[in-house]
Amino acid sequence: DNAISPPLKLGVVDIKKKMWFHTLVYGGQCLSRKHIDAVFYYLRKKVKYDDGITMRVTSTDSQFDLNLQSLYKLYVKKDYDTSVVNMEHVVAEYMSGYKMHCNTCWLNVDHVLIPIYMEEEKHWVLGHLSLRDRCMYIIHYIVKILMKELRKHWNRFVYCCHIFSP
Questions:
Q1: Which residues of 17-54 are buried (b: 16+ CB within 10 A; e: fewer)?
Q2: How does pLDDT run across 34-86, given as a tens digit for each residue?
Q3: Is residue 22 part of a domain?
Q4: Residue 123, domain CATH
């Protein structure tokens, strides 16, 4: 039997199947959005509430990546009309410290960690936005063949961040 009843609440994720843990223990499979969201929730919580951590950092969740992609597609569809990128959009809510448990306003941090899922490659990469250094990094373990796709994905993020930045 694969079911967990009642479901196990792991931070922001309800685990209903034992296979969720199997993926973590034995590997060889792509992590799901639930895996990523659970890990990044506990990372945000640890950094926000542990007095021993002095680094000013937050992270997003997997939904942020989807929202950002959606915003960029709308921006392109509307012939690069910058008015579609505004402070009422859900991406701005993330940046303002809303939308997720244990979130922090980006004005109060130096670093933002962003999980990015590359759909075609079925591969997660980590985006590191250094607000202090005004630099973006991508942490990955992929071959050069995937770099073109990764750059395309990251360029969307760069543009949207540029519009939202004060």
A1: eeebeebeeeeeeebbbbbbbbbbbebbeebeeeeeee
A2: 999 999 999 999 999 999 999 999 999 999 999 998 998 898 999 989 888 88
A3: no
A4: 3.30.310.130
Classify 163 as helix, strand or coil: helix
Number of domains the chain is built from: 1
What's the domain range around 61?
31-164
Under 8 Å CB-to-CB from 106, ≥6 apart: which residues?
58, 95, 96, 97, 112, 131
**Three-class SS state of 23:** helix
Spatial neighbors of 29 by CB under 8 A, at least 6 apart, are 23
pTM given for the model: 0.80
Instruction: Determine how many CB atoms are found less than 10 A away from the CB of residue 124.
Output: 19
Give CA–CA dist 58/67, Å, rounded.
18
Query: Do 14 and 7 contact (CB within 8 A), yes or no?
Result: yes
